[in-house]
Amino acid sequence: MKTIQVEQKKETLIIVLNRPEFRNAVNFEMMDELRKVLDQAKQSSQIKTIIFTGVERSFSSGGDLGQFHQLKSKDEVKPMLEKMGKVITQIVNLGKPTIAYVNGYALGGGAELAMACDFRFISNQAKMGFIQINLGVTSGWGGGTLLLEKLGRTKALSLLLTGDILNNEQILQYEIALKEVSSFDEVLLFADKINSHSLESLQAYIDLANGVRDGRTFVENQKKEIESCSTLWESVEHERAVDEFLQKNK
Prior knowledge:
alpha/beta; six-stranded mixed sheet; about 250 residues; 2-enoyl-CoA Hydratase, Chain A, domain 1; about 15% strand
């Protein structure tokens, strides 16, 4: 692949945005490659967790304006927005835990991509900003909605309406990221801890979280919990774990 690097470590798939000369800006080719890899990751029983990051000192600077600025009319730009919007939707509805390691700049569409993930870890060089308003437009891939969902109206609008760029300390203050880490290895350790559990239990919790996001009632989600717990109760993993627990506590 030309615009991304893909590596599997144990049960974690690492997707590295790889256009360093453009600060890992998203172009049409990257959209196609991301869609293909995400389709494969969703179907694979050997992959439990997906990590996104970028080469060198950028996560992603957003959309490739050198390419996209050639789109002048609404009719021309809308298909591009919808195309990347589908990638964001893929990530949001992947059904497996997703992590963004923001190792540098995540601006505009890059911030939208990071917000699509379940977790965000940052380096001390991280900078994030929904800078679209500074260019006379809004977010266009769904990231504004995700920011509002995760931060609430007041905090999210304070970023969307100003176009401010946050440094690493401010990202943590806004509770956009879970943690600042000193190396990528710490992110991998977090993924490994998740991966120590069965894929079925991970998917059940992701589905539960998606249900809350999508407005399922308490009773509807409670039924989901009962169904998933009772199904997993008869699994080999559950029986083994209970046996080990009982042996330790004799």
